[in-house]
Amino acid sequence: MKLRLLASTPAVETLIATAMLTTTSGASPSSLFHRLSANPTKVAETVGKIEVQHGSIFEHNRLDWLLEAREGEILKILLANRFFSVTRLGSDSWLLSANLRTILEYQVEGDEFSGLLMSSIENLIPSAYAFGRRKA
Description:
With 136 residues, the protein is of the alpha+beta class. The chain is 48% helix and 17% strand.
């Protein structure tokens, strides 16, 4: 099985921080996002404090991968979590799409695919990577 991240929503960590702060701030989400975009240190501090009671803060994004896997492996993934979107591109080639919440929830599987997912976001979304590793 091989997994390669193709694309993602830009500024995912800033979006997560915005979602976190909209529950405690009177500011509008767009205002928060613009202020946070100018302050990466505040983003890192905010996202570093994640304690999730509800995973919706991880839903405001989309990530897309090219996945090389057998049909049985894809079926196992889809049976484990119905929120992955999968399109067959070839015999063992698939376009896979999900949001960060789906990735983090899949970590309970502890299989090869969960490890590949986490490796794919390690540098792009380090705070979510660290959070996912704490949850695994």
